[in-house]
Amino acid sequence: MSRPTGRVLILLELLQSGGIRTVAELAGRLGVDGRTVRRYVDQLIDLDVPVEAVRGRYGGYRIGSGYRVPPLMLSDDEALAVLLGLAAGRRSGLMTAADAASETAAAKIRRVLPERLARRLDTVLESLAFTTPPGEFPTPDAEVLLTVADAVRHRRPVSIGYTDRDGHRSERLLHAYGIVSHSGRWYVTGVDPGIGEDRTFRLDRIVGARPLTGSFEVPDGFDPAQRVLSGFATAEYRYEVTLRIDATVDQIRTRLPASVATLEETVPGDAGADPGAGRWIRVELRAQELDWLPPVLASLDRPFVIERPDALRTLVVAFADRLARSGERHHPGTAREEPRGGVTDGA
What we know:
The chain has helices spanning 3-16, 23-30, 34-46, 76-92, 99-111, 115-127, 142-154, 224-233, 249-253, 293-300, 310-330, and strands at residues 51-54, 60-63, 158-163, 169-182, 185-192, 197-202, 206-211, 239-245, 261-266, 280-287, 304-308. The protein is of the alpha+beta class and 347 residues long. It folds into 4 domains: 3-63, Winged helix-like DNA-binding domain superfamily/Winged helix DNA-binding domain (Arc Repressor Mutant, subunit A); 76-127; 142-232, SH3 type barrels, CATH 2.30.30; 239-330, 2-Layer Sandwich (Alpha-Beta Plaits), CATH 3.30.70. The strands form 3 sheets. Strands 6-5-4-3-7 form a 5-stranded antiparallel β-sheet. β4 and β5 (185-192) form a beta hairpin. α4 (76-92) packs antiparallel against α5 (99-111).
């Protein structure tokens, strides 16, 4: 820990031990002069620590009555990690609506950093670039997040006011199983006990949360993150797509993650499986548009069968033709080959 930062924290600890501490006493304990003690006191006041000056012959400094805070003992590396985390969190959407809180927290930590480290930190922050613009994603209210988190931890029902994507406001009852941060947004997932159905809500659309009496049990092995990802994969969209791909789960997941598609292994003899074939994976997903799928399937470089919809077959054939024509333009006179990831009509 840097010497100035350590001395400020030692000063805070001395003042918290109670009573009035004279400037001379504090200077002796810290190994500095009186003017430096006053500068350290000013730093504590800047950090909202209520240090009071007591005048008179036996005057000095003391902490305001009833106030006590444990010293924040951070090394230079730890302080740097915290500040970088706050900066990255603000830019990536992993902050609550009380964005000013993250700003003031960062400012308080930075104030007690030695100037050398503070300058290096500024250099890092000025050099950083983010692919996601600040404020792109709406953030949840801090009180809502804390209330819902408390309901998750203590397994208490919670009543929420929710505004859906169409702007309709409703009151919901929720057994909240977990909170998930995904792609810059916060979600709470659980069960609506009134209808016994799974529910996932965006926290930024919750306009109020109120804890209720009672308790509930979370199913064994429940994974909140997997629930949210599966919800994305099964949400209602314009097209329902079913494929069979001759590939491993890991190969498919490199192009179609759990948030996009659900996978099921099939074997010969299963309905829809090719006789004599090895193990295929049935892939199901929903999409608002289909034009992104042909390049994804081609990039897998594995045989696949399109079961539905017919519109995807048409797009894949057109995509394959474009690739073939492009290859002929760059290599005239070469024989045209069928792409490895061929299209087969589904059963």
